[in-house]
Amino acid sequence: MNSAMRCLAAGLACVLLAACGGRSSVVLVPDPDGHVGSAEVSTAGGKQVLAKSGDMTKVAGGDAPPSAVSTAGADYLARTFGEALAIEPPPPEKFTLYFETGTTTLTAESARAVAAIVAASHRRRAIGIAVSGHTDTAGSIALNERLARERAEFVRQLLVGQGAEFRRMAVSSHGKGNPAVPTADGVAEPRNRRVEVILH
Amino acid sequence: MKTLACGLLLLALHGPALAADEGIGHIQTLQGSVWIERGGQRLPVAPGTEVRRGDLIRTGMPGAVGIVLSDHSSVSLGSGSELAMETYDFDPREGRFALVMRMVRGSFAYLSGLIGKLSPESIRLKVPDATIAVRGTKLLVEIPE
């Protein structure tokens, strides 16, 4: 598309937005675990909080506050969001692997779990695999970090070596920033010294 | 506000790719007509295609796509939709979190991920004339034409 056409397309989109007043709708729904969070919708004119399943508000311009909260009907949801909901990525599968203290040697149980991860990657025809190393808050950060990275890299090699199915694999270290069990600083917590493998 | 939205839309269509170009997620599912606009180019997509900061993700008629970001959040789009990945940072090690998506038009399902768990105040979904602060977890957004 050339520059003039892009300008035209952008201008047309603006005309359409203006013509329809941009009546956006925002609906809070349960997540796959059944949990309902909350959301706050703000315009220059005010705000509304969505707090219950099915809570909906509409935005009809920047100067007006979002509409009073109503309940979205099942018909509206199915008609409007059927396509987006049908194409939603399936829920990921998460596996947690543990190691012998201070080493990149998997515990016996976690060593057996690797085959289950590989099998799951084939069963679901995994697109993305994320491997993340995690530490607890005790000891030297530099040392913990290095170990977490080495463990994550070791798991990557195992998955590749055993023929896991994927199109993208990302290896990272979350350090102590994403604990399984939140603790104060300086606490040795074996459940936090782990590698997580998440299949999408 | 309409002028501002138009200006941003023009920026999104014309602006150069943002400096950082590392992947922030990938295309997980798709059907029909789906493409990414990046740096003025229209790129084809497939399952596993990388999504980058600054990308504009679009669907035709019909077209639908599901995207997974590296914090394991997801967003899916129905036909005739347009989504700009404006800001993204997911670095638990350094405690850096940011997620700003602009929903320009269409239908969307958004499910928050680790940024929502570790730093929910870092998430902003922008729609025409409004901003949504998400404190978890799943939202549906319709922006009719």
Task: Write a concise keyword list for the protein shown above.
heterodimer; A: 60s Ribosomal Protein L30, Chain: A; 9 strands; elongated; B: 145 residues; 10 strands; disordered N terminus
Taken together, the total number of domains of chain A comes to 2
Biggest sheet overview of chain B: 10 strands, mixed
CATH architecture classification of the largest domain in chain A:
2-Layer Sandwich
Largest interface: A-B, 69 and 69 residues
The helix-strand sequence of chain B is HEEEEEEEHEEE
Strand percentage of chain B lies at over 45%
Q: Record the strand order, biggest sheet of chain A.
A: 6-9-7-8
- State the share of residues found in helices of chain A, binned by percent: 25-40%
How would you describe this protein?
The complex is a heterodimer of chains A (200) and B (145). With 200 residues, chain A is an alpha+beta fold. Chain A contains 4 helices and 9 strands, in the order αβββββαβαβαββ. Chain A starts with a helix and ends with a strand. Chain B is mainly beta and 145 residues long. Chain B has one domain (2-143). Chain B has helices at 2-14, 114-118; strands at 23-38, 41-44, 50-52, 56-69, 74-77, 82-91, 96-111, 123-127, 130-134, 138-143. In chain B, strands 1, 2, 3, 4, 5, 6, 7, 8, 9 and 10 form a 10-stranded mixed beta sheet that branches.
